[in-house]
Protein: Aspartokinase
Organism: Cohnella zeiphila
Amino acid sequence: MMITVQKFGGTSLSDERGRRHVLRHISRERATGAGLVVVVSAMGRRGEPYATDTLLDWIDRNGRSLPDREKDMLLSCGELISAATLCSLLNREGIPSVALTGGQAGIVTDGRFGSARIAKVNPAKIAEHLADDKVVIVAGFQGMTEDGEITTLGRGGSDTSAAALGAALEASVVDIYTDVEGILTADPRLVGEARPLAVVSYEEICNMAYNGAKVIHPRAVEIAMRAGVPIRVRSTFSDSEGTLVTRADLAREKSGWMDRAVTGLAHVGGVTQLAVGTPEGPSDLQLRVFRAMAINGISVDFINVTPAGILYTVGEPDADLAIALLREMGFEPRSRAGCAKVAVIGGGMNGEPGVMARIVEALTESNIPILQSADSNATIWVLVSEEDMAPAMRALHSAFSLHLTP
Ligand code: ADP
Ligand code: MG
């Protein structure tokens, strides 16, 4: 039996209109004869009654003394409500269905409450229900440990649930339905001209996701990539095909962009830049600084080491601790809060001369100072001040003509 996994995000399920579209996609897919596994997120965004962020706010106000284990029990409820609601809607339409918790669906995780990792999936129960011709609805974002504890998977966890189920069931495709037309060349909230990409490779979207594109979780992409299951990111509210995420060679073949250097942009705000000067004479400064950051679980970025000193960035939530640690070691760090990381991403930029030159040119023309830069084979990052973030994204988007992306 061909199996399709569909995942519907929070905004897709939050109101009548969205849920009507969800039903439409389910009916259409079911009519193809495919076995259907539907992963759901909690309904709506912060402020709406059953949204995950609303539950988190509730915990903040009333449950600060709640242990992590019980916090996960509470957080898992949003998806359970979605799953049961969808089951009721499908019954009303005469479509037989069954709703399962993550644990019941066979998603086995480790015991890290709040950010559990999927260890394996036992798809036997899902397979039974599919054989009974039922649509299997699975609560996303959650799993269960070997000994029966409820866990949640962290931000974007429903994407991960869907990819893991797709891999375990050898699905022909995992369809991630959301509130945009696919993976766009940049976040449409910042760049009005952003365009949906027809095809991207797993690697490219992983790079975009790790650099802040919240449209899909990078762990989900990695799981699908390892299993060789294609992902489609598409809109709940339309019938467009959205973006196909597949192997680089297939992506190249399907899109016909042999020489696309830059695929898209991503951004992360809330970054603090730190500078530490080297004392006179030889020292083990670098070793001491980075060891202290590592021991304290502070992840560092944009690392520049020169004989004159070191320059690097940390996330804003870690900045105070990082500065305190540096002072404790006898340094006088200089810090610049309110920075943003802008990433220019493309599987085809490797060996393509002039990409950096175009970045510098575009930002200089817009009077945007580059505070730091870094690059890898498929990404170039620039650090800019946070108020320059959106203008920088727009300048780069037009410098690389991403609005012309087919
Ligand atoms: P869901 O609730 O469906 O999981 P998310 O909010 O997690 O939805 O993801 C969709 C959002 O991701 C879009 O509304 C969009 O603002 C944002 N986004 C950020 N970068 C991109 C991008 N490159 N392409 C598409 N959407 C993006
Ligand atoms: Mg999401």
Observations:
- DSSP finds 14 helices and 18 strands in the chain.
- Residues 9-12, 41, 178-180, 183-184, 186-189, 208, 213-215, 264 surround adenosine-5'-diphosphate (ligand 1) (CB under 6 Å).
- The mean pLDDT is 94.
